[in-house]
């Protein structure tokens, strides 16, 4: 059922919950707690939709298998704040949700990682639009598919839009030698309350994932398939690193229209590094057999690309490390 009120300084393990009523999750807050489960594990809810006005701070959320999120393991939410949390899963870890969409979400000072699909907001965002998503001072990395907003975007229709969304002061992806780490500083204030600040830096050695460099990392998403975007930005305080297919916006971009964007990210990969995408496909096809995107042609317009691009082993481009036409299916 729904949760209202406040929970703090608790530890919950072996959690796998389902929410039968979709109209749940109003005004809930969890602080300084640990939640650990097999799958569908969240700081407040295991799964379910329409969670609104939630806040999580200082929590550690871990799913041994799939779907871990600062608020909900798998589900949709509206208006939430997540701060100073660690969210991990084998697959699909997100600062807010392991899976599904969200609107008006702020994630600050969090560490999010998974073997596959880690994102500042969602591990895997499928079939949903989203807006007003903000990630600040976070460390996000995965073996495959890491993004400042989502590890992987996947839509059945490229009419789906991600808009009015931004990432700043954040490090995405990892190399074989370095991973991103969040450092928290508390400074005593005149009123007795400490002022909290966060910075993210590259640290040496294995952590969480061992020494595996990220494949498909982007300032917005590791992989975008069939999703349109508008009014997105990746600040010049953002850096994206990985083994291959690393981009200022996307690790791989496959279909959809991308309008009004800006990226100043510092991009570095072993191979296939691009200011916009590590791998850019001109004609996107859905992973679902027999399904064709409404707008399969990839369109990029009214944007700017700044920052830097480096590929130590080759294939670096101001827009894309590699461009491929894609395979257009017969009408």
List keywords for this structure.
61% strand, single chain, disordered N terminus, 13-stranded parallel sheet, ten-stranded parallel sheet, 0% helix, mainly beta, 331 residues
Give structural notes.
This protein is 0% helix and 61% strand. It is built from no helices and 34 strands. Strands 2, 4, 5, 8, 11, 14, 17, 20, 23, 26, 29, 32 and 33 form a 13-stranded parallel β-sheet that branches. A 10-stranded parallel β-sheet has the order 1-3-7-10-13-16-19-25-28-31, with no helix packed on it. A 7-stranded parallel β-sheet has the order 12-15-18-24-27-30-34, with no helix packed on it. It is globular, with a radius of gyration of 19 Å.
Regarding quaternary structure, how should these chains be classified? Answer: single chain
Coarse structural class? mainly beta
Helix content: under 10%
Shape: globular
Computed Rg: 19 Å
Please tally the β strands and state the result.
Answer: 34
Unreliable runs: 1-8, 12-25
Summed up, the helix count is 0
Alpha-carbon distance between the termini?
48 Å
In terms of DSSP E residues, the strand content is: over 45%
Q: What kind of sheet is the major sheet?
A: 13 strands, parallel
pLDDT average, as an integer?
A: 87
